[in-house]
């Protein structure tokens, strides 16, 4: 065990959990109507709790167990069987590696929340998220990070998929799942209401930015120069994408909005994620500069050309950003086109199939969408019996 590595990953684990609680909760919560903000908070918090338990029960074992088929890790480490305080994973206590990866298993299904806010049943959120994490996310983790079929020496060649912190594993899977659910769910009855609290959006985005240092820097799994470089390029990409998004918004619409500026931040962070362990500062500037415009145009296509109500633009920002960053690894010669494209296609197809099947199956168990009256009145009071704001008190 290396003490410095261990200390850094303890901090990184806290930072990644901070991304979901409270970062993502505030970012998403500020974008919805005032009558739905508590439902977003409820979804984020409940998913964090449920995924933590399921990661212990089976998720970690599926992702990082000793399975030899290349498809999944098996159940040999279910309930952390055989893992104690003295077990090591590289230079880290394995229990710490478990906890660090658990925070990724929390935020990935939590990202999908943005596609279905304001109209989805709470029972569906928890049931779908639980099954999706175990049956879609955890196997993909094994394929790429757990030594499975897409890693080095796997089905895509000696040089496998390069995905440092989750361009495919986190952002492509969550983005595609979000898009599919949005299509199946159908649009909200009222799509024109502006964000109820842009201040929440900015604060949440700022928390995500800070937490992303743990997300990308922690993925080095060591306290060394590689972690420092990953943090630096993450910051530069986020800063550049924020400005290019705002500039493009100013050119197209005449005004640069604060919500647009910080959405560009998230686009830059998502895009640099897969490449953050491989690229340098100048390459990060390029990735961020393109991401701010590319993801904004993706928002326009999905919303206005395809008329899909991916409410908080999960696929356009996270999905497109993660895919773009994954391809830039090959463009910069830091991975092979075969592995990068092959990984995107295989994981994309698997995610689509699993997501569609799970939505159909879970909808037989619990309603997918709330009724019209509940949607009109808002989920906070109708589903959870609470209001975020009591103006009379």
TrEMBL record:
PANTHER family: AMMONIUM TRANSPORTER MEP2 (PTHR43029:SF10). It is a multi-pass membrane protein. It comes from the Bacteria. Residues 7-389 form the Ammonium transporter AmtB-like domain. Pfam families: Ammonium_transp (PF00909). InterPro entries: Ammonium/urea_transptr, Ammonium_transpt, Ammonium_transpt_CS, NH4_transpt_AmtB-like_dom. Keywords: Ammonia transport, Membrane, Transmembrane, Transmembrane helix, Transport. The chain crosses the membrane at residues 6-28, 40-63, 95-117, 124-145, 165-185, 197-215, 227-247, 259-278, 284-302, 314-335, 341-365. GO terms for molecular function: ammonium channel activity. The lineage of its organism: Bacteria, Pseudomonadati, Pseudomonadota, Alphaproteobacteria, Rhodobacterales. The keyword Acetylation does not apply. Gene3D superfamilies: Ammonium transporter AmtB like domains. It is found in: Cell membrane; Membrane. Belongs to the ammonia transporter channel (TC 1.A.11.2) family. GO terms for cellular component: plasma membrane. This is Ammonium transporter. Its main location: membrane. The keyword Endoplasmic reticulum does not apply. It comes from Ruegeria conchae.
């Amino acid at each position: 065990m290396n003490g410095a590595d261990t200390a850094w990953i303890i901090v990184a684990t806290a930072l990644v959990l901070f991304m979901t609680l409270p970062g993502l909760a505030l970012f998403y919560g500020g974008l919805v109507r005032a009558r739905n903000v508590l439902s977003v908070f409820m979804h984020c918090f409940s998913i964090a709790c449920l995924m933590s338990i399921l990661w212990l029960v089976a998720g970690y074992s599926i992702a990082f167990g000793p399975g030899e088929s290349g498809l999944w890790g098996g159940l040999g480490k279910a309930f952390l069987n055989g893992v104690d305080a003295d077990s090591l994973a590289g230079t880290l206590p394995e229990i710490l590696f478990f906890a660090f990866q658990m925070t990724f298993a929390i935020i990935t299904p939590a990202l999908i929340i943005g596609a279905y806010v304001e109209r989805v049943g709470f029972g569906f959120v928890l049931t779908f998220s639980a099954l999706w994490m175990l049956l879609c996310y955890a196997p993909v983790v094994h394929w790429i990070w757990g030594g499975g079929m897409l890693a080095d020496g796997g089905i895509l060649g000696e040089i496998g998929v390069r995905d440092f912190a989750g361009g495919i594993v986190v952002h492509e899977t969550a983005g595609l799942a979000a898009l599919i659910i949005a299509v199946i769910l159908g649009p909200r009855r009222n799509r024109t209401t502006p964000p109820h609290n842009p201040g929440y959006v900015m604060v949440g985005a700022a928390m995500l930015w800070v937490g992303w240092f743990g997300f990308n820097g922690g993925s080095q799994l060591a306290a060394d120069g590689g972690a420092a470089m990953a943090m630096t390029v993450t910051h530069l990409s986020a800063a550049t994408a924020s400005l290019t998004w705002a500039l493009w918004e100013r050119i197209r619409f005449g005004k640069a909005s604060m919500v647009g500026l910080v959405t560009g931040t998230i686009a830059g962070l998502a895009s640099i994620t897969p490449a953050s362990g491989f690229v340098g500062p100048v390459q990060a500037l390029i990735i961020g500069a393109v991401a701010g415009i590319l993801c904004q145009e993706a928002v326009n296509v999905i919303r206005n050309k395809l008329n899909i109500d991916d409410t908080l633009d999960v696929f356009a920002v996270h999905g497109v950003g993660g895919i773009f960053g994954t391809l830039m690894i090959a463009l910069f010669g830091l991975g092979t086109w075969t592995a990068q494209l092959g990984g995107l296609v295989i994981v994309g197809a698997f995610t689509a199939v699993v997501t569609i099947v799970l939505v159909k199956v879970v909808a037989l168990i619990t309603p997918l969408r709330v009724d019209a009256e509940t949607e009109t009145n808002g989920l906070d009071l109708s589903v959870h019996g609470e209001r975020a704001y009591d103006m009379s008190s």
